[in-house]
Amino acid sequence: DQQVKQNSPSLSVQEGRISILNCDYTNSMFDYFLWYKKYPAEGPTFLISISSIKDKNEDGRFTVFLNKSAKHLSLHIVPSQPGDSAVYFCAADDNAGGTSYGKLTFGQGTILTVHP
Amino acid sequence: GAGVSQSPSNKVTEKGKDVELRCDPISGHTALYWYRQSLGQGLEFLIYFQGNSAPDKSGLPSDRFSAERTGGSVSTLTIQRTQQEDSAVYLCASSRTSGGPTDTQYFGPGTRLTVL
Asked: How many alpha carbons lie under 13 Å from residue A8 in its C-beta half-sphere?
């Protein structure tokens, strides 16, 4: 049972354009969401996060949007750069009544390719 | 400073053999996680260590899997009598404090395990 889903295995965009990566979840107890970025032969690195009490969080070129009613979040990268080419994972945490310790549930990942 | 390191980077073994995977977390990080990523899947939580507390083993897929963390630092994940379905990338992560979702997890590069 995949509680976090990234339905697009890959996305290709032109440099300078916007990249939009999508993620859907099914567990209504999830209350904290994260995006990780992964380059080949490296481990994932944290990119940006959002708490369920917010609907938007911005950090430079990266913005995460959360739509709780739709159980959907998205990562916007604008403008996209060739160095952004990587695998992007969304992840979620359910905080288990305040006892969560960061046990994350990840999506399958989306391969982003930004063409010069 | 050094990041999370894992060894070996690649491991090929025959079905039925035991394997040991090692993780060196970032110095001073008290929380340590093991995940695995099978082909086409997201990262799957396996086990969590926090200081000297009993680990959360709820993600281990079978009793062939075990892990220990000696001295609150280095961790070893052991898979006994390996099966082909154990083939995956095994990722280790550490975080600085109690390991809540807002405490960034830093990942190692992973060990790619192939069971023939």
From this structure: 17
Alpha-carbon gap: B46 to the closest alpha carbon of chain A (Å): 9
Which residue do the tokens 């708490």 mark? A51
- Put simply, whether B45 touches A (Cβ < 8 Å) is yes
Residue A10's φ and ψ, nearest 5 degrees, are -150, 160
Please report the residues numbered 26 through 85 in chain A whose beta carbons come closer than 8 angstroms to any beta carbon of chain B: 32, 34, 36, 41-46, 49
Match 């107890």 to its residue by tokens: A29
Q: Which tens digit of pLDDT belongs to each residue from B23-50?
A: 999 998 989 999 999 988 889 999 999 8
CA dihedral of residues B100, B104, B105, B106 (deg, nearest 10):
-160
Give B57 to chain A, closest Cα distance, Å: 11
Q: How confident is the model at residue B102 (pLDDT cuts 50, 70, 90)?
A: confident
**Which residues contact residue A60 at a Cβ distance below 8 angstroms, ignoring those fewer than 6 apart?**
none
pLDDT one-digit tens code per residue, B52-93? 788 889 899 999 999 999 887 899 999 999 999 999 999 999
Tell me, what amino acid is at A105? T
Cross-chain Cβ contact A32/B33 below 8 Å: no
Q: Give strand ranges (E) for chain B.
A: 5-7, 10-13, 19-24, 31-37, 43-50, 65-69, 75-79, 88-95, 106-107, 111-115
- Asked if A95 reaches chain B (Cβ–Cβ under 8 Å), the answer is yes
Q: In chain A, which residue's Cα lies nearest the Cα of B91?
A: A43
